[in-house]
């Protein structure tokens, strides 16, 4: 792969041609080569090394979460277009025969499925907040967690950097406003230095989440006006529209209010997180350094393989 100008589809085809990704027949859902997985593993080790100084508690959540938790979090109010819930067949033999008949006739058989208690996890941190709240008051010096999960967002695309199922690594800080601000500022600096050590072009920029509907435009403007979200952008599928590969978010006391996250004195906790899009970083590395990892710049290999 070269670093010239090409479309998202061009990049996707090059990834297929080089055996880095594999088609499944669904946009945004791909098989990954062993080398693609190794690059992600090496990058995750780098992230863990950089975060180890803070001594976070590690928790890995599954790609499914309690649907009631997703509802209470407010996700469906802000991002209904991205959410996915798990449905399953719950009928008897007669319903099963009907289902098979509908399949044979090429009809839509999914009407015979019913929603389960599971939703697909949209971000690694969503199951964390009720988990922490259930433990009781948060210590005044705060809490720090390192998380990992497969995540789902329904936005099918032929842009390989916009997958429907992808992995997210996060550090989440829960504490006072000053505490979580300091945490986010530290990772704004660490994250940029980390990506630059991989010899990838990048820039930090103010950002907003893709809130739904007309009201979402106001929420997005408020988010930008208050500086609640920054992204580290790397050209992956487009030079003109670089991809957000790292995200730095300050939630204020939103999750504190939602889940009753409080200190012993009853005051609400604030929270912030830094998220790493693992597939996106791997794609950026292949995009800029080529399909053969053995030919990557020695300094990059030293950071990922030799450290």
Automatic annotation (TrEMBL):
Q: Which GO terms describe its molecular function?
A: ligase activity
Its Enzyme Commission number? 6.2.1.n2
Keyword annotations for this protein, in alphabetical order, are: Ligase
According to UniProt, the name of this protein is Amino acid--[acyl-carrier-protein] ligase
């Amino acid at each position: 792969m070269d670093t010239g100008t090409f479309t998202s589809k061009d990049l996707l085809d090059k990834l297929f041609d080089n055996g880095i990704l594999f088609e499944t027949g669904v946009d945004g859902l791909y098989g990954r080569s062993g080398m693609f997985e190794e690059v992600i593993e090496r990058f995750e080790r780098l992230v863990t090394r950089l975060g180890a100084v803070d001594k976070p508690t590690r928790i890995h959540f599954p790609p499914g979460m309690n649907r009631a938790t997703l509802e209470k979090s407010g996700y469906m109010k802000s991002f209904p277009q991205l959410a996915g819930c798990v449905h399953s067949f719950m009928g008897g033999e007669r319903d099963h025969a009907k289902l098979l008949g509908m399949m044979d006739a090429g009809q839509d058989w999914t009407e015979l499925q019913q929603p389960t208690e599971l939703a697909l996890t949209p971000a690694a941190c969503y199951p964390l907040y009720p988990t922490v709240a259930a433990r009781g008051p948060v210590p005044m010096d705060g809490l720090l967690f390192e998380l990992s999960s497969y995540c789902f967002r329904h936005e099918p695309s032929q842009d390989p950097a916009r997958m429907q199922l992808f992995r997210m690594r996060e550090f989440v800080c829960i504490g006072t406003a000053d505490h979580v601000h300091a945490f986010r500022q530290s990772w704004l600096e660490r994250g940029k230095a980390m990506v630059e050590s991989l010899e990838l072009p990048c820039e930090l920029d103010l950002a907003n989440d893709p809130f739904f509907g007309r009201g979402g435009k106001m929420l997005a403007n408020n988010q930008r006006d208050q500086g609640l979200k920054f992204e580290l952008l790397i050209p992956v599928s487009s030079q003109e529209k670089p991809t957000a590969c790292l995200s730095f978010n300050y939630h204020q006391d939103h999750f504190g209010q939602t889940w009753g996250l409080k200190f012993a004195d009853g005051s609400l906790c604030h929270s912030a997180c830094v998220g790493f899009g693992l597939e996106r970083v791997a794609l950026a590395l292949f995009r800029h350094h080529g399909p053969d990892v053995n030919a990557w710049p020695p300094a990059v290999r030293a950071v990922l393989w030799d450290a």
